[in-house]
């Protein structure tokens, strides 16, 4: 049963927690693609990201395969963040500030990498314990050693698992998920509502399947101002 636009808006206005996807939602780019470009294997990885988004391979398989091509060192990751810091999407800072002023808890749930997502969280004044993302692993000499496969975000359906966990841990009744991709849409339920975001990239399968689809964070800010 699909909720109507007005129902989704109502859920958003009374949400106790709002969870954002990061790549192509909170930031303009896809972190893994940027990392691949930076490490000189951009084209091969972009194609695999497209497959993962389209749902033709499992998320964990796509992540494993892409990372085995990139094989980034700790130094490369740090240099990427310094030289090409993730670009925030217009309006996200104002929206997060507005949610925080209303005592709404804000979380970042990403299939991307914690080291990059933490950098984003800091810019938005989101506490680091509100960040759920994948952890890259490195050997003592800084070489790539894989990723932490035990994180819920490393699996298909991982975002929903995180939201279920948050509801249990904090006792939230109303949680909204906002994102651009299929993995974000699939997190509702357990999320009470889903808002599709097309400000950076429009994914037709998401746009068609959600009741409230926005292309700018200003639309969400306007809704909050009605409270």
UniProtKB/TrEMBL annotation:
Its cofactor is Mg(2+). Pathway: Amino-acid biosynthesis; L-serine biosynthesis; L-serine from 3-phospho-D-glycerate: step 3/3. Its EC number is 3.1.3.3. GO terms for molecular function: L-phosphoserine phosphatase activity; magnesium ion binding. It catalyses: O-phospho-L-serine + H2O = L-serine + phosphate; O-phospho-D-serine + H2O = D-serine + phosphate. GO terms for biological process: L-serine biosynthetic process. InterPro entries: HAD-like_SerB, HAD-like_sf, HAD_sf, PSP. One of its GO terms (cellular component) is cytoplasm. The active site is at residues 21, 23. Keywords: Amino-acid biosynthesis, Hydrolase, Magnesium, Metal-binding, Serine biosynthesis. Transmembrane segments: none annotated. Catalyzes the last irreversible step in the biosynthesis of L-serine from carbohydrates, the dephosphorylation of O-phospho-L-serine to L-serine. L-serine can then be used in protein synthesis, to produce other amino acids, in nucleotide metabolism or in glutathione synthesis, or can be racemized to D-serine, a neuromodulator. May also act on O-phospho-D-serine. Belongs to the HAD-like hydrolase superfamily. SerB family. This is Phosphoserine phosphatase. It comes from Myripristis murdjan. The gene is PSPH.
């Amino acid at each position: 049963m699909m909720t109507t636009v007005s129902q989704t808006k109502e859920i958003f206005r009374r949400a106790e927690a709002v969870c954002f996807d990061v790549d192509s939602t909170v930031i303009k780019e896809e972190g893994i693609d940027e990392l691949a470009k930076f490490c000189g294997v951009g084209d091969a990885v972009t194609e695999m990201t497209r497959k993962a988004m389209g749902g033709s391979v499992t998320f964990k398989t796509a992540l494993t395969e892409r990372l085995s091509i990139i094989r980034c060192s700790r130094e490369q990751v740090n240099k990427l963040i310094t030289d090409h810091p993730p670009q925030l999407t217009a309006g996200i800072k104002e929206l997060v500030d507005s949610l925080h002023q209303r005592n709404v808890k804000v979380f970042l749930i990403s299939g991307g990498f914690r080291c990059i997502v933490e950098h984003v969280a800091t810019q938005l004044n989101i506490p680091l314990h509100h960040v759920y993302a994948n952890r890259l692993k490195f050997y003592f000499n800084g070489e790539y050693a894989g990723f932490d496969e035990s994180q819920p975000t490393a699996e298909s359906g991982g975002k929903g698992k995180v939201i279920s966990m948050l509801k249990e841990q904090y006792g939230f009744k109303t949680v909204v998920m906002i994102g651009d991709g299929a993995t974000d849409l699939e997190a509702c339920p357990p999320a009470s509502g889903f808002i599709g975001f097309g400000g950076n990239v429009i994914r037709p399968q998401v746009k068609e399947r959600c009741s409230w689809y926005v292309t700018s964070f200003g639309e969400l800010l306007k809704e909050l101002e009605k409270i």
